[in-house]
Write a structure and sequence with these properties.
Blueprint: H1 7-18, H2 22-44, H3 47-63, H4 74-90, H5 113-131, H6 135-147, H7 151-158, H8 162-175, H9 178-188, H10 198-210, H11 214-221, H12 225-240, H13 245-266, H14 277-292, H15 297-304, H16 314-326, H17 331-343, H18 350-360, H19 365-377, H20 381-396, H21 403-407
Helix pairs in contact: 1-2, 2-3, 2-4, 2-6, 2-10, 3-4, 3-10, 5-9, 6-8, 6-9, 7-8, 10-11, 10-13, 11-13, 12-13, 14-15, 14-16, 15-16, 15-17, 16-17, 16-18, 17-18, 17-19, 18-19, 18-20, 19-20
């Protein structure tokens, strides 16, 4: 019998879960967890990231389960949520979290170093071969071998005909070496969440905390050896703050949820679609700058929001975002120059040099801002030459000889 294909059973579980039955939703997670992680892995190529994406997807799915109308649409609906979280992780949007698994050691079977090394080498070779497959073949191969999902189940999840699943799987088998085909399932099992209950329990813990089901939180925290160690740690922290352990867990998870939502709200500019390829590339570039920056993220976001409405100077704005990520003392002045670049009705390359000048000077930024305003207003060749001459004069008196030296300080 197919693992998830019984529509009547799935319909009942969905109805119960929509009514607030956490155990019913836990059964949905158990049925789809391997498929969710397998799909995420086929996109991200990393099992840890794949588990993170799948868990976040199930947590979001529980929150929005009322939007699902029956078992027929649930698999494809879940897939789209997983894809969204894969996209977030692929964009290198990092939010600091602590894995529950890190709170205590997990036992592993005793094996010799040679056996461990050989198994790891073979597993990595197989996974590398899977990753080398074309995307369409990689997805169905991972879903088929991670836990034996049927063609019908994969077709429902991917919203495609069963024949397409069959054709893609046949093609993937031809590309993989015969020996590798025999070991694919074992390699994919390394990231299979259904090996134990930790994946489902973590999703359930988040969902129970969100609906403030204290009995369920307590039950999940005490469920296994790993969580028992975490339970003792949290109990001590809760007592220090005059709270119950369940209240502390709910508080922490609510804060985590708010952190995720606030981060997504702040960075939605990077998900904005524009008709201009230049603007889209600039937003991607600034997003990379934002993700790498340790400070001044607010200024970088403010500069990024100028890109969609700018008619000219897109590359200048992206350059200014880079400078803002490197230079803290002058981010306000850099934002002002970016605003001038965004509102300017013509290309003004001088603004890029003026932004460099702000970073090179540790004082006197007001005169540089006035120079930027003058550069925007300059129309004739003579006026533009006067602006360039003034830039060179200020460079001579700057605290640094060039922008490279200023950024290395």
């Amino acid at each position: 019998m197919d693992k998830i294909a019984r529509m009547d059973e799935l319909d009942l579980l969905i109805i119960r879960a929509q009514a607030g039955d956490l155990d019913a939703f836990g059964m949905l997670v158990q049925r789809f967890q391997d498929m969710a992680v397998g799909y995420a892995y086929s996109i991200l190529g990393d099992f840890h990231l794949a588990q993170d994406a799948a868990q976040e997807a199930f947590i979001e799915a529980y929150r929005n389960l009322g939007r699902v109308y029956g078992a027929l649409v649930f698999p494809s609906w879940l897939r789209r949520i997983i894809l969204k979280h894969c996209d977030r992780l692929a964009r290198r949007v990092h939010i600091q979290t602590v894995r529950l698994e890190q709170a205590a050691k997990v036992r592993s079977e005793e094996k010799s170093p040679l056996e461990v090394a050989e198994e790891r080498e073979m597993r990595q070779a197989v996974l590398s071969a899977i990753r080398s497959l074309p995307k369409e073949e990689r997805i169905v191969t991972t879903l088929f071998y991670i836990d034996g999902y049927s063609y019908k189940e994969i077709a429902a999840f991917m919203e495609m005909p069963v024949t397409t699943v069959d054709n893609r799987l046949r093609s993937a088998r031809k590309r993989l070496k015969r020996k590798m085909v025999a070991t694919v399932r074992g390699a994919l099992h390394t990231g299979q969440p259904s090996k134990d209950e930790r994946f489902t329990n973590k999703v359930q813990l988040f969902n129970a905390a969100e609906v403030r089901d204290m009995d369920k939180v307590r039950e999940l925290l005490k469920m296994d050896e790993t969580h028992a160690a975490l339970y003792d740690f949290l109990k001590a922290r809760a007592e220090e703050q005059g709270m119950t352990i369940e209240e502390l867990v709910v508080l922490v998870i609510q804060q985590y949820k708010e952190q995720i939502e606030n981060h997504q709200q702040r960075t939605r500019i990077f998900r904005r679609k524009t008709r201009s390829r230049e603007k889209q590339e600039a937003l991607r570039a600034i997003e990379g700058i934002y993700n790498e920056a340790k400070f001044h993220n607010g200024a970088i976001l403010e500069i990024a929001r100028l890109v969609p409405k700018a008619e000219h100077n897109i590359s200048v704005i992206a350059h200014i975002a880079y400078l803002a990520s490197k230079c803290g003392h002058s981010t306000r002045s850099l934002v002002e120059v970016a605003q001038l670049a965004s509102s300017c009705k013509h290309d003004c390359g001088e603004l890029s040099d003026i932004a460099d000048l702000i970073v090179m000077k540790l004082s006197g930024t007001m005169q540089v801002i006035r120079l930027a305003e003058w550069a925007v207003k300059a129309q004739t060749a003579e006026e533009k030459e006067q602006v360039r001459s003034r830039i060179k004069e200020l460079e001579v008196t700057a605290d640094y000889r060039n922008i490279e030296e200023a950024l290395e300080r």
